[in-house]
Write a structure and sequence with these properties.
Blueprint (H helix, E strand, L loop, with lengths): L22 E3 L13 H10 L2 E7 L6 H11 L2 E4 L12 H12 L6 E10 L7 H18 L3 E6 L2 H10 L5 E4 L5 H9 L2 E5 L9 H9 L5 E3 L15 H5 L11 H12 L3 H15 L3 H6 L1
Parallel strand pairs: 1-2, 2-3, 3-4, 4-5, 5-6, 6-7, 7-8
The protein binds zinc ion.
């Protein structure tokens, strides 16, 4: 896999202090308002750090055009979906809009998945039944379009699996994965890969670190979820943030985040890049021709 990218393959670090391997950020919200002031520079920094491609999942219909446009502008990939935490403000017709957009852009090579969809039962003031209805409806759209899904899972692994048993989609990625080892196994059996990012860099994230270390080698993919889930070196306390400090995460952090996965698994950086890359390509097959072009 890695031999087709000889320009990046050398041991050690580059001048910026990051490992110069070809990385894939499988989950990056480059459309978020946090990047309004310097969006182009953010992706330039990522590219300079060796992040060759990113996947931009939409969270609401109003951003469908935006993620598509950004993906085309920067040579990236995108996904279309309604995020569970955006379901309360979504309209029922938005599900039709998703179906139409998937149809309209089905030949766009940069459209690689349906997402970000899922269930979030951590936040209590949401309507779980409506979330489930949107989740199931979006799984059906993915199945009909033949696309994998990018799934948001928070205190909801069993209910998500229930939906996946009913509606068979061609696999995908469970993003920011944090559930039991058994639940991890059930997703992996269904052809899913598991996303690991900044959360795994915190020593106290015992469960996530144990999962990152122990899931089968074909399971982990890397992601930043930028601007969210900052790694420990960007983390600021609430008091620091109140005083004006920011803790914005960026796709350029991916290579340093990858070092944690390498340590946890006992892999070399080269092995980590090659394995997570192969895993991302098998979860999202439409990425492969984008990398070759
Ligand atoms: Zn996300």
């Amino acid at each position: 896999m890695i031999r087709s990218y000889p320009m990046y393959v050398h041991a050690g670090r580059n001048d910026a202090g990051v490992n110069p391997m070809p990385w894939i950020d499988t989950h990056c919200h480059l459309d978020a308002t946090e990047f309004d002031a310097d969006r182009d520079a953010v992706w330039q920094r990522a590219r300079a750090a060796g992040v060759t491609i990113g996947v931009l999942p939409a969270v609401q219909v109003a951003h469908f055009e935006r993620v598509r446009e950004l993906a085309h502008r920067h040579g990236l990939a995108y996904a279309l979906g309604i995020h569970p935490l955006f379901v309360p403000r979504a309209k029922d017709e938005d599900l039709e809009c998703l179906g139409e957009a998937l149809q309209r852009w089905r030949d766009d090579p940069r459209l690689v998945a349906v997402g970000e969809i899922g269930l979030d039962f951590f936040v209590h003031d949401t309507d779980p039944e409506r979330q489930e209805r949107f989740y199931v409806a979006q799984l059906k759209r993915a199945r009909d379009a033949g696309l994998p899904v990018i799934v948001h899972v928070r205190k909801s692994a069993d209910q998500l699996l229930k939906g996946l048993r009913r509606i068979e989609v061609p696999g995908g990625i469970c993003h920011a994965f944090n559930a039991s080892e058994q639940q991890a196994g059930l997703f992996v059996e269904r052809g899913f890969r598991l996303g690991f990012g900044g959360a795994m860099t915190f020593d106290r994230a015992l469960n996530i670190r144990a999962l990152a270390a122990s899931v089968p080698a074909h399971a982990p993919v890397l992601e930043t979820d930028a601007p969210d889930i900052p790694p420990h070196w960007l983390y600021r306390t609430a008091a620091e943030r109140a005083a004006g400090a920011t803790s914005r995460n960026e796709p350029a952090e991916l290579p340093r985040i990858a070092e944690t996965l390498a340590e946890l698994r006992g892999w070399s950086i080269e092995e980590t890049a090659a394995t997570t890359r192969a895993n991302a390509l098998s979860a999202l097959p439409r990425l492969a021709p984008l990398l070759a072009s």
